[in-house]
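pasting for the record
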Amino acid sequence: MSHRGFASDNYAGAHPDVLAAMAEVNVGHVTSYGADPTTATAVERFREVLGEQVEVFFVFNGTGANIVGLQGLLHTWESVVCARTAHINVDECGAPERHLGSKVIDLSTSDGKLTTELVRSVYTGIGDEHRSQPRVVSITQSTEVGTIYTPAEVRELADTAHSLDMYLHMDGARISNAAAGLGVELRETTGDCGVDVLSFGGTKNGLVGAEAVVFFRPELAQNELFIRKQQMQLASKMRFISAQFIALLNDDLWRHNANHANAMARRLADAVRDVQGVTLTQEVQANGVFATIPAAAVSTLQPEFHFYEWDELSHECRWMCSWDTTEDDVDRFAAAIAEVVPQSL
């Protein structure tokens, strides 16, 4: 690929500070499977940022983080309630059902966000042996369509879940982008709002194959050492994952990277919102821009600028910005959109 595209923030490379942190721990022989000083330091750093009570388990990828986190909350006869667009429902190849044996109940939303009314609408059949029992509410922050739950909205969902004897799980693949977009600390949109378990994303924000499962209630994490191993998410050379998180959480690198990606998304949206034939479909709150354009424009622009057609029927496209997206990248893409889209009408 000759230049940075807009398909996914996963396309971006590693931040130089992250690579330097990995190189720094690439010395000598170190105890494996997380029993090393670097991992201990990373866990302590998480506790400084998210709360001294948290239990942290490092894993390889986002799907693994979601599975490892959810398994600690569910029996096989219980279900997970999520938005229809949720990663666990759409983009994990049925992994929750396959590996957890639990039903996923997906609900339609206009903006990717669950509400307490939606959750209560499927809290039915309680105690009925013929019905899967709802146990977990899972939300994504920021959502798969780039929107953000406010801390008040997260707290309301957490309070509702807890009042129904359910748990609140947060898929935080882009939690840094959400917190940066809100202008708050990471704990202010997670543990402080009543989240029970968080899948903390690092890979989309400048790390290399590094995610974490964070339990805000330690009693829920009692079996996680075994769950992580059984789900094939236990890294033997864990220090290389842990070192990356130390770099990310030190000096607010997480916020710097996320602020930049978010700003590039706003720049792109501002540049194309008045182009004839472009309709922005979601408010730009994090690092993604969602817009419909004519089918002919999609096929013309995709080969050079690399982006996904989010909805093939409506030709809604997703344009993602990354920690390393430049103003020139955005301006080149916006200029191409302004040229190609009106000609495709």
